[in-house]
Amino acid sequence: PAADAERNLYARGGADDHALAPELMERGYLLFEENLRAMVQSAARRDVPVVLCRLVSVLHGYQPQGADLPLDPEARRAWVNGYRRTARLVEEERYREGLKAAVVLLAEVPTSAAARYQRGVCRRALGDLSGAREDLVAARDLDRRPMRASQRINDLVERVAREEGAWLADPGPRFAEIAAGGITSHDHFVDIC
Q: Does the pLDDT at position 191 exceed 70?
């Protein structure tokens, strides 16, 4: 956990300039779908069967790399300092205090992937696996510098498979069975794109 906090941009005082602009993210999703569809169509023209696979992501142990922050410079500094405090509490395994601090951060920036992640880690440690999974999935999907397959990516994979006649594999349910509360971690696989 300490190493995770150090690697996290927010722990080092990072700002949303480390995040991708929404229009760039949207363009990336469009290109992903376009390229995936082209590959499936190319294989179909050659009578090569294709199996697309929904991707499973590490939820616990992989902090988001980019998220929304307040626009006002003073509010941003205060928020980042609050985040550092929250990460420190989590690192020190002071999960009840960390949970309260994360809730304050989320009240200020509800779309913060970083704060959702910290709240999810606290909830997991405190035994609220359902709430933890909800937060950790949201943290992954809100990440403005995504390095893991989000729900949106998996929805695109599923849609392309359905529309192009490819088979679809989904290992997610099996991982959800073996991971406590369905919260995948590096104990289950390595997730580095």
A: no
